[in-house]
Design a protein that fits this description.
single chain, alpha+beta, CRO Repressor, 10% strand
Length: 176
Amino acid sequence: MDMIFFDNIDKLGRIVLTAVMVYVLIVLATKVSGKRSTSQLNNFDWIVTVMIGSLGASTILLENIPFIEGAASIIVLYVLQFLVTKYASISPAFSSVILSEPRIVFYQGQFLPDAMRAERLTRQELECAMRSEGVHSLSEIEAIVFESDAKLTIITKPDSEQATDTVSETLAPLTD
């Protein structure tokens, strides 16, 4: 019960100094690694982000983890993320293993219950995405796509024949 609010000044000093160093490390590593580490996260990116947060917290709070060991583990994760995403960008087969494919969950006035069930989406979630995009009627929508980063993309119906061809070309790979 003695250590609820304060243990000793040495521990506090170590935590403050380590927190600053870990913060600087993560900011610099994120800057070097590029937009990928802070963009819309797919499952893979989310896992790496959580792991980096956990390693950062462990390095800051646990006395038996020196800064160099914590920093090395964080840098290794950034390097692995870079290598995996680089390889995924040049290998469609590898990409399909680690990334989920987008899926159409609403198309031409119809909810697609099998697709919605497979993605564990409800009608209310699709309607919420519609409202967020300023769409107020299902009749305005050509399709709703559940993206690989778990974002719902609303594709509204086109106004012209040329736009119809563009939408069809865009959706064709997703319906195959």
